[in-house]
Amino acid sequence: MLLNANIALCSSKALLVPYSSWHVPRYHEWMKDPEIQEATASEPLTLEEEYSMQRSWRQDADKLTFIVCRAITTGAEDDIPSQAELQAESDSPATMVGDINLFLRIDDGEEGDSPPQIVGEIELMIAEKVNQRRGFGRAALLMFMRYIIQNQGAILDEFVGGGDVDVETVRKLRTGVETAASSEGLTLECLSVKIGQANLRSLALFEGLGFERVSAEPNFFGEFELRKADLSLGGVDAALEGAKVRGFIALPYERTE
């Protein structure tokens, strides 16, 4: 997705930047880990294939991706990031800890006979064990959710305008609004995540933020799907405060491909 190509999300706990070519070598090293491959249901790629994937994700209208980095602040709770502090080294390979993605899809039921809805599926990875259980995942998830909710209209504009959603489906999605404007009448029905049944930490993280299991039993692949329909800014802001994620701000990201 092109929407976030020039935006960085900053807070006292983490920095989120658009996935760019200079992040690929480090990301490629992460994805060589068999445990990460299994957790993300990914096949190993060559470095050139990884570069191609990065370019594709930047262009695809149904994918929104950020790289998660360590915060650029000193760590003080009241230390608020500023443009002056966002430098090229702020998202250098040494600062990278993971990634977070939104995959948009049309959900019209298992049989295709339900009214179509737009669902946004989240994938979150904190790659290395040394960076896990340090609050990066919770901070990144809350910051990402706030960006999605605040920019829902622009995100859906790019999604339905990308050419992969047919005109008739878009018409049905508009909930009765007679307009040609891309996102008018469109809503994101919910955020979704699929988590392996043995991944108790991730289940606890998402359930602690209001995601609810769709069914009591895992699916054929051993995963639970969890969904969150309450996409209010107030709820996310309260969760940010509760997690002591201070000074959330979106800043211009001026590095270019």
Automatic annotation (TrEMBL):
Assigned protein family: Belongs to the acetyltransferase family. GNAT subfamily.
Protein name: N-acetyltransferase domain-containing protein
Record-annotated N-acetyltransferase domain positions: 15-212
InterPro entries documented for this protein: Acyl_CoA_acyltransferase, GNAT_dom, NAT9-like
Entries under Pfam families matching the protein: Acetyltransf_3
Keyword Acyltransferase annotated: yes
Origin organism lineage: Eukaryota, Fungi, Dikarya, Ascomycota, Pezizomycotina
Keyword set, alphabetical order: Acyltransferase, Transferase
TM annotation in the entry: none
Source organism, top-level taxon: Eukaryota
Keyword Transferase: yes
Gene Ontology molecular-function annotations: N-acetyltransferase activity
